[in-house]
Each structure stands twice: as structure tokens, then as C-alpha cells.
Task: inverse folding
């Protein structure tokens, strides 16, 4: 009865879920229905706009810089107990579990290894 716009299947995508208040969900459904679009499309558009703004004030290299501070502190706390190689493998698994892209994980691990060798 109501047409949905099909998303492009050739793009790489990842599902991101969130619980929202019932009122938000209901309004989103009603709005999508009236605009003859999908809730997913509306949410994706909103997230892409957020990302565009966020990348201007907090670019990826700055996020990695901030994350390196946390990683190094955790390394200092964990190393006496479990050793260097164990930490790196646990770090990689944790970043993968959080959905970080492989290229970013590789950059973080390389930087960590370079900085901890000094």
C-alpha cells in the first residue's frame, strides 16, 4: 500500500540499533509514512548530517589521539599482569567488537606499537 524507497544495495553498510522513546518511534513512523520514505532512510540522513558536522570539529586523527591516551593508560595498568602481546591482541579484538573499520584498527595498532617501543 505504501511505497518504500529501496536503499542502495551496493554500498557497504552496517546495522546500528538504538532504543528510542515510544513517542519518538511513533512520530518517526508517522512522518516516514506521510513522506513516503523509510524510517531507516530518515535516521540515516540524520546520522550523516551529524557525522558531517562532527568531522569538522573532531576529525578522525583527533579521535585517535584521544583514544591513544586511554589505550596507553590501560596498557600501563594491564602489562604487568598479562604482557605486551596479550594486550595488543585484546585491543584488536575489542576494537573489532566495537565495529571500528580495519584500516583504523591497523592505524591505531601501528601507532601504539611504534609509541610503546620508544
Result:
Amino acid at each position: 500500500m505504501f511505497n518504500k524507497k529501496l536503499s542502495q544495495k551496493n554500498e557497504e553498510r552496517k546495522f546500528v540499533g538504538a532504543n528510542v522513546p515510544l513517542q519518538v518511534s511513533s512520530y518517526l513512523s508517522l512522518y516516514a509514512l506521510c513522506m513516503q520514505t523509510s524510517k531507516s532512510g530518515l535516521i540515516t540522513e540524520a546520522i550523516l548530517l551529524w557525522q558531517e558536522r562532527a568531522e569538522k570539529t573532531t576529525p578522525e586523527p583527533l579521535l585517535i589521539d584521544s583514544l591513544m591516551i586511554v589505550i596507553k593508560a590501560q596498557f600501563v595498568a594491564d602489562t604487568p599482569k598479562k604482557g605486551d602481546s596479550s594486550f595488543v591482541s585484546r585491543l584488536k579484538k575489542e576494537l573489532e567488537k566495537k565495529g571500528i573499520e580495519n584500516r583504523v584498527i591497523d592505524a591505531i595498532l601501528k601507532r601504539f606499537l611504534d609509541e610503546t617501543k620508544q
